[in-house]
Amino acid sequence: MTSNWLFAGALVALMGATGLSQTGTLAPVAPRLLSQTGLYAGEGARVVDVRNRPFAPQYPLWSDGAGKTRWLQLPPGATIDVTNPDRWNFPVGTRFWKEFAFDGHKVETRFLWKVSERDWVFASYAWNDEQNDAVLVPEAGQSDVAEIVPGKRHSIPSVTECRSCHDSARTEILGFSALQLSDDRDPNALHAETLTPEMVTLRTLADERLISPKRVEFVSSPPRIEAATPVARAALGYLSTNCGSCHNRESSLASLGLLLKHSVADARSAGPSVDGAAECSPALATTINRKGHWLVPADPEQSRLINPGKPEMSSLIQRIRSRRPSSQMPPIGTVVQDRAAVDLLTEWVASNAGELKRCAGASAGALAGSH
Amino acid sequence: MKKTDLLITTILIAAAIILTSVLATATVGATGGATGAEQSPTPAGKAVARGKYLVDIMGCHDCHTPWKMGPKGPEMDMSRALTGHPEDLAMPPAPALPPGPWIGAVGATMTAWAGPWGVSYTMNLTPDKETGLGDWTLEQFVATMKTGRDRGKGRPLLPPMPYFNLGKLSDEDIASVFAYLQSLPPTRNRVPQPIDPPEGR
């Protein structure tokens, strides 16, 4: 009996960082406390380990006004494979954290940990009242953890919901990409956090040789969204982050033919403003004057995804405005309307009708190069 | 009858049964299962047959095939099988219910449902490209059943769609259902969008 109990004790200790996979092998699992994930140095969850590098995407995802802080940890000596500039491949062992706070009160921290070439661990941690650590949330998520505005509460998403955005063709870090880390930052990007000197950017990654192969163009001509006006640039950047994680050509929703994610590769193959081609990016070619499945109820005949000059007849804007379950977009992760986004998109569609109409009927495939 | 005669007779009868069975199978195979997909020996045919079986027993027709009044009472209008709420049937506003335990109302076609979730209309499940499942992928269909969200990522499915039951089917069975639905003749029928409940409900 003694030996059996010793074996069980050893197994329990091991299960602190591993669990039985479906194949019966031991696979890493998220630890119970955030302070055990490697984010912090020393005891508890107070001082962030200096090995973890902060970063801030230039086009952040709207999360009902939450203040967000993000960190990355790469394994020592490892590099990020950027062979495909739109789909970075992170080394095994990579960890990401994103902390959510409302009015300075930490609510949750999400944790992504690459544990094998194919697998990432997805986990969310709910902060305790003392704000000195956070506890692993069940896979089903946790509802109504904090009030955002009167009558609206923040919920921690389930792992399935996390994967619905992060698993397009393979797990993607939405806020850590060539466009998001570009040093040519959009001054009009909505809800962008201030870039501080310690934050990782494309230049940092290149200078510290944290990406391979070497891409001089990331520094010499950092990615940016070429657009007709500053408002259009900010609008397309907003759509790329808030809609493009699902509406892209590698997603399970690709058959909808709606391509809102900005592609660094597409931008380079299209070239800078050749006969207005840059203005007719896939995001415009697949939305301008095109009918979607959802039609503006007030006038279905006039409804278009983007109806140039008519934001009220643009279903894309009306769905971003909506927080009704049958029509809101994005469908998860938000319960409060992003008023600034609605205003930006309304201004863009209302005041750039001429420019937008030039893209009506354009072919996204032709403009997108060889994809 | 002697024991040996009985044995020989039994063997002859058994052989005849086996031969008949083999010939029947060969006939079905040679005609490519001309009597219907249920007898098709191909994997695709088997999936379609399995899908039809599942669709029939799981009650998909109950809501996705419009009902009509027949000589003996309400009956499914199989000429519109699985085409969802009829496009040409504009429903008036749902009746307001008095306070109490009654929770909803349903149209006579069984394709329009009203309740605290607003008004939902059952979907056209035929493979019409614009109005049905014609532009859906198998991955999207499986994800919809598993998550209860449109194409696995969109808006939540609305009552009375029992995705929480269907989502417990194996992926193979869901694929069979999809195969059967995709084998139906595409029927153009644009089902109305759901209507949200009034603000504050």
Question: Would you mind describing this structure in some detail?
Answer:
The complex is a heterodimer of chains A (371) and B (201). Helix content of chain A is 23%, strand content 18%. Chain A is of the alpha+beta class and 371 residues long. Chain A has a 6-stranded antiparallel beta sheet with strand order 5-6-8-9-10-11, with helices on one face. In chain A, strands 1-2 form a two-stranded antiparallel sheet. Chain A starts with a helix and ends with a helix. Chain B has 201 residues and is mainly alpha-helical. Helix content of chain B is 38%, strand content 9%. In chain B, strand 4 and strand 5 form a beta hairpin. Residues 6-37 of chain B have low confidence and may be disordered. The A-B interface holds A 160, 164-165, 246, 251-253, 255-256, 294-295, 297, 324-328, 331 and B 117-118, 135-137, 139-140, 143, 147, 149-156, 158, 193-196.
Summary, kept brief:
With 371 residues, chain A is α+β, with helices and mostly antiparallel strands. In chain A, 23% of the residues lie in helices and 18% in strands.
* Spatial ordering of strands, largest sheet of chain B: 3-4-5
Percent in strands of chain A: 15-25%
Instruction: State mean pLDDT of chain B (0 to 100 scale).
Output: 84
Instruction: Find the count of extended strands of chain B (DSSP E, 2+ residues).
Output: 5
Low-pLDDT stretches of chain B are 6-37
How large, in whole angstroms, is the Cα Rg of chain A?
A: 22 Å
Biggest sheet architecture of chain B: 3 strands, antiparallel
- Element-level helix/strand string of chain B: HHHEEEEEHHH
Shape type of chain A: globular
Oligomer: heterodimer
- H/E element sequence of chain A: HEEEEEEEEEEEEEHHEHHHHHHHH
What is the typical, i.e. mean, pLDDT of chain A?
87
C-alpha end-to-end distance of chain A: 63 Å
SSE class of chain B: mainly alpha
**Main β-sheet of chain A, in a few words?**
6 strands, antiparallel
Approximately what portion of the residues of chain B adopt beta-strand conformation?
Answer: 5-15%
Number of helices of chain A: 11
Number of helical segments with 4 or more residues of chain B? 6
Q: Kindly state the number of beta strands of chain A.
A: 14
